[in-house]
Amino acid sequence: MLLWGPPSKFVSGSWDPKQENNEIRSIDDGRTADRLLNWINKQMGSSYGLDDEKYENEHLNTNISDPGQIARAVYDVEEATFTSFDIILGQKMIKLETRASLTKFLQLLVVHHPSRRCRKGTAEILVDFDDLLANKKEVAGLSQKGVLGNYQICGKEIPRGYWMFCRGSKNETRGFSCGLWVLLHSLSVRVDDGESHMAFTAVCDFIHSFFICEECRQHFYDMCSSVSTPFKKSREFVLWLWNAHNKVNERLMKEEASLGTGDPKFPKVIWPPKQLCPSCYRSQNSKDNHIDWDHDEVFKFLNNYYGKMLISLYKDKEHLRDGQTGGVVVEDLAVSTNAVVVPVGAALAIAVASCAFGALACYWRQQQKSRKPRRSWN
Ligand SMILES: Cc1cc2nc3c(=O)[nH]c(=O)nc-3n(C[C@H](O)[C@H](O)[C@H](O)COP(=O)(O)OP(=O)(O)OC[C@H]3O[C@@H](n4cnc5c(N)ncnc54)[C@H](O)[C@@H]3O)c2cc1C
């Protein structure tokens, strides 16, 4: 049921639908987004439309120099993990020749995925997966969603069906591939020195076997193949992945500019931009834009950005849940963020409407209070 009224009335508690002159009313025609918006427009004398791009993208934070934005990406990392697995099953990509790559990547996720529920979900899959793999004849069956589709790789709340940090300003931009990059970077900063080469090959083989974009797969694999000496330090892997991503960015910067295929609100850049990490830049040539990176600083920055910062919101959530007190508050926060992301213009119109209505009610009450009491002889 959808209700309409001044915000203060919702806070104050009880609502009796039968009470006359009730300031909270139920919206009786909100079955579709269109009808709901019509209803709101009638109340407000406004003319919001579902295609109002201005409202749709108003909350998109395109401020690339705001490091705090990455905390929202932990949700995208979960979404990307689910989507990868879903594509693998849906496209029947588990074959005799690819199953080892999947196992290796799942092993990496079990230990180093930044989300606890994805680590748990992956572990559940791996336990049974190993048993099934023991019998080669089962591999064809494994590709069927019916067999592995019952597993929830990141728990029952995932997929949410939308992107947060990785949300593009157009439907066809960003999303999954952005979430996958963030997942890979977040894994790279979590592995120990001794695991770095194993993690590198797990990532390379996974992309080569399972990334649906053929061109991307090939390019990435070429970059992987150019590594001739095994990594001994996690730093080498972290910086290699960062550099590989920048090579892709550089290529796409030109491609997107000429074909107009990029997201206008999120143009590709050599990353991190100076605003995000000034200390990463030793110098930049003003003629050809060549950057002399301070690799120690870049490594420090990546570690912090994809390490601590990425999970800052998530950690709070876990902490509060464990404490059994503030869980609801944080859940509420997550829900209210969803509400902004999903129903586009309608939700914003509702928010505007309820604020306006609240302000009017408040003003009216002030007027009532400040009126002098009438004297009976007047
Ligand atoms: C492995 C892989 C290979 C790909 N290869 C191709 C390809 O060959 N051709 C193609 O058209 N598309 C390719 N894609 C998709 C493409 O790279 C983008 O993911 C897509 O265009 C969406 O871009 P985006 O603006 O969301 O930012 P993305 O490039 O997806 O980046 C996501 C986020 O990562 C951060 N970031 C950006 N650069 C770096 C960096 N160097 N190091 C660390 N973090 C960074 C930024 O915060 C950015 O918002 C590939 C994707 C992946 C995962």
Automatic annotation (TrEMBL):
Gene3D superfamilies according to UniProt: ERV/ALR sulfhydryl oxidase domain (1.20.120.310)
Single Gene Ontology BP annotation: protein folding
InterPro entries documented for this protein: ERV/ALR_sulphydryl_oxid_sf, ERV/ALR_sulphydryl_oxidase, Sulfhydryl_oxidase
Reactions that this protein is recorded to catalyse: 2 R'C(R)SH + O2 = R'C(R)S-S(R)CR' + H2O2
SUPFAM superfamilies documented for this protein: FAD-dependent thiol oxidase
ERV/ALR sulfhydryl oxidase domain location: 169-271
Transmembrane feature ranges: 340-364
Coiled coil: none
EC annotation from Swiss-Prot or TrEMBL: 1.8.3.2
Cofactor: FAD
Pfam family, one: Evr1_Alr
Cellular component annotations (GO), alphabetically ordered: extracellular space; Golgi membrane
Top-level taxon in the UniProt lineage: Eukaryota
UniProt keyword Transport present: no
UniProt-recorded Gene Ontology molecular function terms: flavin-dependent sulfhydryl oxidase activity; protein disulfide isomerase activity
Key words, A-Z: Disulfide bond, FAD, Flavoprotein, Membrane, Oxidoreductase, Signal, Transmembrane, Transmembrane helix
Keyword Signal included in the entry's annotation: yes
Protein name, per record: Sulfhydryl oxidase
High-level lineage: Eukaryota, Viridiplantae, Streptophyta, Embryophyta, Tracheophyta
